[in-house]
Design brief:
Length: 227
């Protein structure tokens, strides 16, 4: 398990022991577009899901707020997402980046999700406080080399299935319990932008309040193996 700490807008904090981590996939609200994306991935050798949206269990210790992600090779990248965090006090919403092994993804999406951590922000909002304006909240992903930064994902939470949709799914499966973290699935990447960068960052911005949640990390190659 891992322990996550979140600061709320009023300055209070919430600490969560992660007991269950789940990654949603193919979770766009427009499922016709999702099916087109699945067809594109199939051409790259990525196996399609048996149903959409999909939900992949991930080892709970992979929920992290680290500022570095160690990788075994150069074909790994992040995905801009939101995360639900169920606590004893209620449900938190924060920003997240699902770092994924793209080389392993062609052998199994569930396997690739367990090869790298899910990076979550250190600040969060109560879901109840933003529920009525979720579709207007922006979600952006950036990649970088050194100090440079380039926009690679730019959408709103309105493009994805809602937190309440996933809370219903969790409740049906008796998974809506404190310690459960669910990562939303992602939005489209901008064609032509290299996702295999050494820095990934994600921002979730609420236009109504001007508040922005952020998560960022460096991608660090591991030493070459011996043997």
């Amino acid at each position: 398990m891992s322990t996550l700490h979140f600061t709320l807008p009023d300055g209070s904090t919430e600490t969560v022991e992660v007991t269950r981590l789940l990654n949603a996939g193919y979770a766009g609200r427009e499922q016709d577009e999702v099916q087109a994306h699945i067809a594109e991935l199939a051409e790259l050798g990525v196996p399609g899901p048996t149903t959409t949206p999909a939900l992949y269990p991930v080892s709970p210790y992979l929920a992290s707020q680290a500022d570095e992600v160690a990788v075994q090779h150069e074909r790994t990248s992040g995905e801009a997402e939101w995360a639900l965090v169920i606590t004893d006090s209620g449900v938190l919403l924060t920003v997240a980046c699902d770092h994924t092994d793209r080389a392993l993804e062609v052998h199994g999406v569930a396997w690739s999700k367990n090869a790298s951590p899910d990076i979550l922000g250190t600040r969060a909002w109560w879901l109840d406080d933003v529920r009525d304006r979720l579709d207007d909240i922006t979600l952006r992903g950036y990649v970088g080399e050194g100090d440079a930064r380039q926009l690679i994902q730019d959408s709103t939470l309105g493009a994805l299935l809602t937190p309440d949709y996933w809370l219903d799914v969790l409740a049906e499966r008796d998974l809506a319990t404190p310690g459960t973290v669910l990562i939303s699935g992602t939005v489209a990447m901008t064609p032509g932008v290299d996702q295999f960068a050494d820095v990934w960052s994600v921002e979730m911005h609420d236009p109504a309040t001007g508040d922005t949640l952020e998560a960022a990390y460096r991608v660090v190659p591991m030493p070459a193996p011996i043997g």
